């Protein structure tokens, strides 16, 4: 039985080159499905990684109760001083989070970029932030540093250039990296400078703190909630970024899957069509084999193998293409909650590649099974007539 | 020795949608071992249908059929497939060779269903090609052979598992006069020298002349002597 199956299958596969034209429909169709699916989902994975990577368990954000955006909130210098003195808080940086519109590189379109005013302690709290060219800004001066992703995406942010914001000109004095996280898409300046440019007085929107761990962050949260002087909550960074990421990832995942499913339906029809015609041009051949005494199993297996072979070829082509073109490709997305660009890399992971190939296999099975069953069911005498 | 083929009241009715199409209406027939029988008759008279029943390719809808001592009536498709591979060689009008395989591999195909080793399969296929006079074309694909040569390869394929019975449906229907004669002489040789029982459906009275006897069919019935009462 095994040798029958093998011989007939090998024969079919050897037969493939003579049908390149009609078989390529399956290959290209399935390559398309897998490419789109893996491409879109790699975007979600990359976005997720960019946001989640930014969160550390020993850091927390203090924001106005009930908000989900860093933009909202008014913390006075007095409130910040009280909090900094609390035993749970190892380090604290008041932060103002605003957006500015800057021209995107190579276009005439303005896009929003996050401008974050921070205290010098911010660099101790976020030790992943490293100046890679130029220097850090000096307190009180109209100086800014720019994340490398923002520097690449927007015009006029090279070190030494001046950026007009409101009625001031800020000087870019350095570029920084932040371990590949979304912070690399931001512009940072001194808290007082940003506050005065944006007429906020001493009021910061949030505060970033270093704590011992998530447990301490939670106990601080309870403490502030119970304190009538504050209308604030404390969220561990891990939790904060995870909730930020969730919405967007769900959106991209949902979009990726629906486009993938629509294309998959198309590909199934293409595969079915191709396999039906591949099988029908071989109706007499298959019937002859059955007349000679070959069973249904070799017939079904050989048709299925052929479909799977073509599907895997298409799947590898699609997944390989996406991997070559997109893996590590940088992109940015508009975060609707804060109207800012988040920079992230497409992450074509091995899980995604495996998933893409699984889809290809699934499509191959569906595309091969029905034609195979039909070929095996057709009465031999009818099939031999070749009608 | 049992007869090669015995049919008693054999019937075949096709169902087309709601319509019943009776194609064979009570065939009584006995064919001895070593016979070479030509089956003639107008188109649509049921010759192919009868040949297919004898070859175990289809189930009768009535009556009895016994071939090589085996009653085919109640057999499952799977059992029939196995039985065919051991007992019947098929020869078709359009040769039905597999275009991707060379002559040698085409002839070897039926042996994949046996327990023979690869070496034995090759040796037997070579022998079969020698018998049909095509040993020198073993590596040619069907597309590189003439019609007559392709039919010889098909005959070698029908021979290779050494069945006692060979059924041929218009084996010369696609060949010119001279080539047809060569094929018919080959069949005569297989009948005379190798003891094959041969049943051949044909339109051509000159082809039928090569057989030992001829039966005529019309509208699903045998119409000449040779049929049982
Ligand atoms: N699978 C089938 N379904 C329905 N009718 C069939 C089928 N096979 C053959 N027939 C009919 O049976 C009759 C006899 O066919 P056949 O045995 O091929 O005749 P012959 O070989 O003598 O020309 C024809 O009318 C043909 O249309
Ligand atoms: Mg016929």
Describe this structure in words.
The complex is a heterodimer of chains A (about 375) and B (about 230). By secondary structure, chain A is α+β, with helices and mostly antiparallel strands. Helix content of chain A is about 55%, strand content about 20%. Chain A has twelve helices and twelve strands. In chain A, the strands form two sheets. In chain A, strands 1, 2, 3, 4, 5, 6, 7, 8, 9 and 10 form a ten-stranded mixed β-sheet that branches. A two-stranded antiparallel ribbon of chain A has the order 11-12. In chain A, helix 2 packs antiparallel against helix 11 (about 350-375), helix 8 (about 235-280) runs parallel beside helix 11 and helix 10 packs antiparallel against helix 11 (about 350-375). The longest helix of chain A is centred in the last third of the chain and has 45 residues, at about 235-280. The radius of gyration of chain A is 30 Å and the shape is elongated. The model of chain A is unreliable at about 335-340 (pLDDT under 50). Chain B has about 230 residues and is an alpha/beta fold. Chain B has a single domain (about 5-220), classed as P-loop containing nucleotide triphosphate hydrolases (Rossmann fold, 3-Layer(aba) Sandwich), CATH 3.40.50. Chain B contains seven helices and ten strands. Chain B has a six-stranded mixed β-sheet with strand order 6-7-8-3-9-10. The longest helix of chain B is centred in the last third of the chain and has 17 residues, at about 175-195. Chain B is globular and about 50 Å long. Chain B starts with a strand and ends in a 7-residue tail after the last strand. The relative contact order of chain B is 0.20. Magnesium ion (MG) binds next to helix 1 of chain B.
Write the layout of secondary structure elements.
The complex is a heterodimer of chains A (387) and B (229).
Chain A (H helix, E strand, L loop, with lengths): L1 H14 L4 H34 L5 E6 L12 H8 L6 E13 L6 E9 L3 H4 L4 E5 L8 E5 H6 L8 E4 L2 E10 L8 E5 H7 L8 E5 L3 H13 L5 E5 H45 L1 H10 L3 H31 L3 E6 L4 E6 L4 H28 L2 H6 L2
Parallel strand pairs in A: 3-8, 5-7
Antiparallel strand pairs in A: 1-9, 1-10, 2-3, 2-9, 4-7, 5-8, 6-7, 11-12
Chain B lengths: L4 E12 L2 E13 L4 E5 L6 H8 L7 E6 L2 E2 L5 H11 E4 L11 H6 L9 H14 L15 H13 L5 E5 L7 H17 L3 E5 L3 H4 L4 E6 L2 E2 L7
Parallel strand pairs in B: 3-8, 3-9, 6-7, 7-8
Antiparallel strand pairs in B: 1-2, 1-4, 4-5, 9-10
Helix pairs in contact in B: 4-5, 5-6
Bound molecules: adenosine-5'-diphosphate (ADP) and magnesium ion.
């Amino acid at each position: 039985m095994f040798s029958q199956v093998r011989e007939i299958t090998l024969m079919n596969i050897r037969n493939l080159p003579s049908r390149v034209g009609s078989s390529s429909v399956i290959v290209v169709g399935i390559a398309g499905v897998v490419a789109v699916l893996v491409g879109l989902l790699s975007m979600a994975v990359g976005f997720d990684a960019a946001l989640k990577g930014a969160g550390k368990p020993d850091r927390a954000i203090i924001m106005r109760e009930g908000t989900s955006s860093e933009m909202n909130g008014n913390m006075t210098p007095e409130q910040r001083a009280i909090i900094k003195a609390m035993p749970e808080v190892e380090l604290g940086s008041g932060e103002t989070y605003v957006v500015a519109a800057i021209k995107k590189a190579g276009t005439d379109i303005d896009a929003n970029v996050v401008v974050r005013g921070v205290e010098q302690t911010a660099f101790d709290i976020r030790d992943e932030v490293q100046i890679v060219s130029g220097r850090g800004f000096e307190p009180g001066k109209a100086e800014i540093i720019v994340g490398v992703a923002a520097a690449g995406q927007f015009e006029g942010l090279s070190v030494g250039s001046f950026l007009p914001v409101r009625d001031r000109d800020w000087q870019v004095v350095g570029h920084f990296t932040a371990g590949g996280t979304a912070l690399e898409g931001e512009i940072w300046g001194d808290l007082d400078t940003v506050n005065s440019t944006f007429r906020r007085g001493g009021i910061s929107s949030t505060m970033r703190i270093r704590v011992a761990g998530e447990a301490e962050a939670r106990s601080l949260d309870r403490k502030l909630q119970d304190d009538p002087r504050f209308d604030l909550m404390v969220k561990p960074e891990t939790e904060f970024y995870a909730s930020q990421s969730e919405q967007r990832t769900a959106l991209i995942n949902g979009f990726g899957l629906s486009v993938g499913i629509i294309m998959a339906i198309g590909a199934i029809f293409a595969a079915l069509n191709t396999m039906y015609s591949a099988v029908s041009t071989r109706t007499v051949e298959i019937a002859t084999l059955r007349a000679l005494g070959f069973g249904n199993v070799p017939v079904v297996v050989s048709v299925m193998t052929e479909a799977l072979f073509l599907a895997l070829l298409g799947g590898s082509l699609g997944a390989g293409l996406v991997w070559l073109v997109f893996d590590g490709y940088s992109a940015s997305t508009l975060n609707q909650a804060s109207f800012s660009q988040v920079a992230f890399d497409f992450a074509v992971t091995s899980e995604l590649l495996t998933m893409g190939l699984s889809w290809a296999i699934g499509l191959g099975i569906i595309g091969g099974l029905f034609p195979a069953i039909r070929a095996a069911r057709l009465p031999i005498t009818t099939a031999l007539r070749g009608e | 020795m049992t007869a090669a083929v015995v049919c008693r009241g054999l019937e075949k009715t096709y169902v087309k949608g709601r319509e019943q199409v009776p194609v064979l209406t009570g065939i009584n027939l006995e064919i001895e071992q070593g016979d070479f029988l030509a089956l003639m008759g107008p188109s649509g008279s049921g010759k192919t249908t009868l040949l297919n029943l004898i070859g175990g390719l289809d189930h009768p809808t009535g009556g009895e059929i016994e071939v090589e001592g085996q009653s085919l009536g109640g057999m499952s498709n799977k059992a029939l497939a196995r039985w065919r591979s051991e007992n019947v060689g098929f020869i078709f009008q359009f040769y039905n060779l597999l275009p991707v395989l060379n002559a040698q591999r085409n002839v070897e195909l039926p042996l994949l269903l046996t327990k023979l080793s690869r070496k034995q399969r090759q040796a037997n296929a070579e022998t079969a090609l020698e018998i049909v006079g095509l040993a020198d074309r073993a590596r040619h694909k069907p597309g590189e052979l003439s019609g007559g040569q392709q039919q010889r390869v098909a005959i070698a394929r029908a021979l290779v598992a050494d069945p006692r019975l060979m059924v041929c449906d218009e084996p010369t229907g696609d060949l010119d006069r001279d080539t047809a004669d060569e094929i018919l002489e080959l069949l005569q040789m297989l009948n005379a020298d190798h003891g094959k029982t041969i049943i051949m459906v044909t339109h051509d009275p000159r082809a039928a002349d090569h057989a030992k006897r001829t039966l005529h069919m019309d509208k699903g019935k045998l119409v000449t002597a040779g049929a049982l009462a």
